[in-house]
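Following up on my earlier message about erythose-4-phosphate. Here are the inputs again, as you asked, copied directly from the submission form:
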Amino acid sequence: MKFFIDTANMEEIKEAFSLGVVAGVTTNPSLVAKEKNVSFEDRLREITALVPGSVSAEVIALDAEGMIKEGKELAAIAPNITIKVPMTPDGLKAVHAFSKEGIKTNVTLIFSANQALLAARAGATYVSPFVGRLDDIGHNGLDLISTIAEIFAIHDISTEIIAASIRHPQHVTDAALRGAHIATVPYKVIQQLFNHPLTDKGIEAFLADWNARS
Ligand code: E4P
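Thanks, got it. Here's what our run produced:
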Protein backbone atom coordinates (compact mmCIF):
# COMPACT_ATOMS: atom_id res chain seq x y z
CA MET A 1 0.00 0.00 0.00
CA LYS A 2 1.26 3.47 -0.92
CA PHE A 3 0.76 6.69 1.06
CA PHE A 4 -0.81 9.88 -0.21
CA ILE A 5 -1.11 12.94 2.02
CA ASP A 6 -4.62 14.37 2.50
CA THR A 7 -4.07 18.13 2.70
CA ALA A 8 -3.78 21.34 0.69
CA ASN A 9 -1.25 22.85 3.10
CA MET A 10 2.19 23.44 1.55
CA GLU A 11 4.15 23.16 4.79
CA GLU A 12 2.60 19.78 5.50
CA ILE A 13 3.17 18.61 1.92
CA LYS A 14 6.83 19.75 1.94
CA GLU A 15 7.50 18.09 5.29
CA ALA A 16 5.76 14.85 4.31
CA PHE A 17 7.62 14.64 1.00
CA SER A 18 10.97 15.24 2.66
CA LEU A 19 10.33 11.99 4.57
CA GLY A 20 10.42 10.09 1.27
CA VAL A 21 7.37 7.96 2.04
CA VAL A 22 4.58 9.85 0.30
CA ALA A 23 3.62 9.20 -3.35
CA GLY A 24 0.80 11.69 -3.97
CA VAL A 25 -1.60 14.30 -2.60
CA THR A 26 -5.37 14.45 -2.26
CA THR A 27 -7.29 17.67 -1.67
CA ASN A 28 -10.98 18.40 -1.29
CA PRO A 29 -12.94 21.68 -1.17
CA SER A 30 -12.96 21.72 2.66
CA LEU A 31 -9.17 21.28 2.82
CA VAL A 32 -8.61 23.96 0.14
CA ALA A 33 -10.95 26.37 1.99
CA LYS A 34 -8.63 26.23 5.02
CA GLU A 35 -5.83 27.75 2.91
CA LYS A 36 -6.06 31.56 2.97
CA ASN A 37 -4.71 34.09 0.47
CA VAL A 38 -4.05 31.64 -2.32
CA SER A 39 -6.22 30.60 -5.26
CA PHE A 40 -6.99 26.92 -5.80
CA GLU A 41 -5.18 27.04 -9.16
CA ASP A 42 -2.06 28.64 -7.69
CA ARG A 43 -1.99 26.12 -4.86
CA LEU A 44 -2.23 23.29 -7.41
CA ARG A 45 0.71 24.85 -9.31
CA GLU A 46 2.75 24.92 -6.09
CA ILE A 47 1.88 21.33 -5.20
CA THR A 48 2.53 19.91 -8.66
CA ALA A 49 5.87 21.73 -8.86
CA LEU A 50 6.97 19.74 -5.81
CA VAL A 51 5.11 16.46 -6.18
CA PRO A 52 5.67 14.23 -9.22
CA GLY A 53 2.89 11.75 -8.27
CA SER A 54 -0.90 12.03 -8.46
CA VAL A 55 -2.40 15.28 -7.11
CA SER A 56 -6.21 15.09 -6.74
CA ALA A 57 -8.14 18.31 -7.43
CA GLU A 58 -11.90 18.21 -6.89
CA VAL A 59 -14.48 19.82 -9.16
CA ILE A 60 -17.23 21.96 -7.64
CA ALA A 61 -19.85 21.77 -10.43
CA LEU A 62 -22.58 19.20 -9.93
CA ASP A 63 -23.64 18.74 -13.57
CA ALA A 64 -21.59 16.62 -15.96
CA GLU A 65 -21.02 19.43 -18.44
CA GLY A 66 -19.78 21.77 -15.71
CA MET A 67 -17.56 19.07 -14.20
CA ILE A 68 -16.00 18.31 -17.58
CA LYS A 69 -15.27 22.00 -18.23
CA GLU A 70 -13.83 22.55 -14.74
CA GLY A 71 -11.91 19.28 -14.81
CA LYS A 72 -10.27 20.05 -18.15
CA GLU A 73 -9.15 23.45 -16.84
CA LEU A 74 -7.68 21.86 -13.70
CA ALA A 75 -6.05 19.04 -15.69
CA ALA A 76 -4.33 21.65 -17.90
CA ILE A 77 -2.42 22.98 -14.86
CA ALA A 78 -0.08 19.96 -14.74
CA PRO A 79 0.08 16.45 -16.24
CA ASN A 80 -0.09 14.79 -12.80
CA ILE A 81 -3.41 16.37 -11.78
CA THR A 82 -6.10 13.76 -11.08
CA ILE A 83 -9.65 15.08 -11.33
CA LYS A 84 -11.68 14.26 -8.24
CA VAL A 85 -15.38 13.81 -8.95
CA PRO A 86 -18.24 13.03 -6.55
CA MET A 87 -20.04 9.69 -6.80
CA THR A 88 -23.19 10.75 -8.67
CA PRO A 89 -24.64 9.85 -12.09
CA ASP A 90 -23.35 13.17 -13.46
CA GLY A 91 -20.00 12.52 -11.80
CA LEU A 92 -19.69 9.19 -13.57
CA LYS A 93 -20.67 10.72 -16.93
CA ALA A 94 -17.78 13.13 -16.41
CA VAL A 95 -15.44 10.29 -15.39
CA HIS A 96 -16.33 8.44 -18.57
CA ALA A 97 -15.57 11.54 -20.66
CA PHE A 98 -12.27 12.13 -18.84
CA SER A 99 -11.20 8.49 -19.26
CA LYS A 100 -11.70 8.74 -23.03
CA GLU A 101 -9.34 11.74 -23.03
CA GLY A 102 -6.73 10.03 -20.85
CA ILE A 103 -7.42 12.31 -17.86
CA LYS A 104 -7.02 10.45 -14.56
CA THR A 105 -9.93 10.49 -12.12
CA ASN A 106 -10.59 9.85 -8.44
CA VAL A 107 -14.24 9.13 -7.60
CA THR A 108 -14.83 10.44 -4.11
CA LEU A 109 -17.52 10.02 -1.43
CA ILE A 110 -17.74 6.26 -1.96
CA PHE A 111 -19.75 4.58 0.78
CA SER A 112 -20.79 1.27 -0.82
CA ALA A 113 -19.28 -1.51 -2.92
CA ASN A 114 -21.81 -0.92 -5.70
CA GLN A 115 -20.75 2.73 -5.92
CA ALA A 116 -17.12 1.58 -6.26
CA LEU A 117 -18.03 -0.94 -8.95
CA LEU A 118 -20.01 1.65 -10.92
CA ALA A 119 -17.15 4.14 -10.68
CA ALA A 120 -14.65 1.52 -11.86
CA ARG A 121 -16.83 0.59 -14.82
CA ALA A 122 -17.14 4.27 -15.79
CA GLY A 123 -13.35 4.28 -16.09
CA ALA A 124 -12.20 5.72 -12.75
CA THR A 125 -8.46 5.56 -12.10
CA TYR A 126 -9.09 5.61 -8.34
CA VAL A 127 -12.07 5.17 -6.00
CA SER A 128 -12.03 6.74 -2.54
CA PRO A 129 -14.11 4.88 0.08
CA PHE A 130 -14.41 7.03 3.24
CA VAL A 131 -13.48 4.81 6.17
CA GLY A 132 -13.79 7.29 9.06
CA ARG A 133 -17.11 8.78 7.99
CA LEU A 134 -18.64 5.27 7.83
CA ASP A 135 -17.27 4.48 11.29
CA ASP A 136 -18.82 7.77 12.50
CA ILE A 137 -22.33 6.50 11.68
CA GLY A 138 -21.79 3.08 13.26
CA HIS A 139 -20.83 1.20 10.09
CA ASN A 140 -17.51 -0.55 9.52
CA GLY A 141 -15.49 1.48 7.02
CA LEU A 142 -12.70 -1.08 6.84
CA ASP A 143 -15.14 -3.85 5.88
CA LEU A 144 -15.98 -1.74 2.83
CA ILE A 145 -12.30 -1.67 1.83
CA SER A 146 -12.19 -5.50 2.04
CA THR A 147 -15.36 -5.91 -0.01
CA ILE A 148 -14.23 -3.55 -2.76
CA ALA A 149 -10.76 -5.16 -2.87
CA GLU A 150 -12.34 -8.61 -3.20
CA ILE A 151 -14.72 -7.55 -5.97
CA PHE A 152 -11.96 -5.78 -7.91
CA ALA A 153 -9.73 -8.88 -7.59
CA ILE A 154 -12.49 -11.29 -8.71
CA HIS A 155 -13.27 -9.18 -11.76
CA ASP A 156 -9.70 -8.18 -12.54
CA ILE A 157 -10.51 -4.47 -12.22
CA SER A 158 -7.46 -2.21 -12.37
CA THR A 159 -9.05 0.81 -10.61
CA GLU A 160 -7.03 1.52 -7.47
CA ILE A 161 -8.61 1.81 -4.03
CA ILE A 162 -7.65 4.88 -1.99
CA ALA A 163 -8.66 4.40 1.66
CA ALA A 164 -9.83 7.91 2.57
CA SER A 165 -11.14 9.61 5.70
CA ILE A 166 -8.32 8.03 7.70
CA ARG A 167 -8.45 9.15 11.32
CA HIS A 168 -5.75 7.21 13.21
CA PRO A 169 -2.80 4.82 12.76
CA GLN A 170 -4.89 1.65 13.20
CA HIS A 171 -6.94 2.67 10.14
CA VAL A 172 -3.67 2.71 8.16
CA THR A 173 -2.57 -0.79 9.22
CA ASP A 174 -6.03 -2.22 8.62
CA ALA A 175 -6.46 -0.50 5.24
CA ALA A 176 -3.17 -2.10 4.14
CA LEU A 177 -4.25 -5.54 5.41
CA ARG A 178 -7.61 -5.29 3.70
CA GLY A 179 -6.18 -4.57 0.28
CA ALA A 180 -6.27 -0.79 -0.22
CA HIS A 181 -3.70 0.19 -2.84
CA ILE A 182 -3.24 3.62 -1.26
CA ALA A 183 -4.20 5.33 2.00
CA THR A 184 -4.59 9.09 1.91
CA VAL A 185 -3.53 10.21 5.34
CA PRO A 186 -3.69 13.58 7.16
CA TYR A 187 -0.29 14.99 8.18
CA LYS A 188 -1.06 14.51 11.88
CA VAL A 189 -1.65 10.78 11.35
CA ILE A 190 1.55 10.46 9.23
CA GLN A 191 3.44 11.87 12.21
CA GLN A 192 1.70 9.43 14.56
CA LEU A 193 2.80 6.48 12.37
CA PHE A 194 6.41 7.09 13.35
CA ASN A 195 5.81 6.89 17.07
CA HIS A 196 6.52 4.00 19.39
CA PRO A 197 7.52 4.43 23.05
CA LEU A 198 10.04 1.56 22.78
CA THR A 199 11.79 3.37 19.89
CA ASP A 200 12.20 6.48 22.08
CA LYS A 201 13.28 4.37 25.05
CA GLY A 202 15.74 2.43 22.88
CA ILE A 203 17.37 5.61 21.49
CA GLU A 204 17.65 6.99 25.01
CA ALA A 205 19.29 3.79 26.29
CA PHE A 206 21.73 3.55 23.34
CA LEU A 207 22.80 7.17 23.87
CA ALA A 208 23.15 6.71 27.63
CA ASP A 209 25.36 3.62 27.10
CA TRP A 210 27.40 5.44 24.44
CA ASN A 211 27.99 8.44 26.67
CA ALA A 212 28.96 6.20 29.65
CA ARG A 213 31.61 4.26 27.71
CA SER A 214 35.12 4.44 29.14
C1 E4P B 1 -9.94 12.33 0.66
O1 E4P B 1 -9.99 12.13 -0.51
C2 E4P B 1 -11.11 12.79 1.43
O2 E4P B 1 -11.57 13.99 0.93
C3 E4P B 1 -10.77 12.88 2.89
O3 E4P B 1 -9.99 11.77 3.26
C4 E4P B 1 -11.98 13.05 3.78
O4 E4P B 1 -11.59 12.93 5.12
P1 E4P B 1 -12.54 13.39 6.34
O5 E4P B 1 -13.69 12.45 6.43
O6 E4P B 1 -11.65 13.30 7.55
O7 E4P B 1 -12.97 14.79 6.02
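One observation from looking it over: The two ends are 46 Å apart (CA to CA). Hope that helps, and feel free to reply on this thread.
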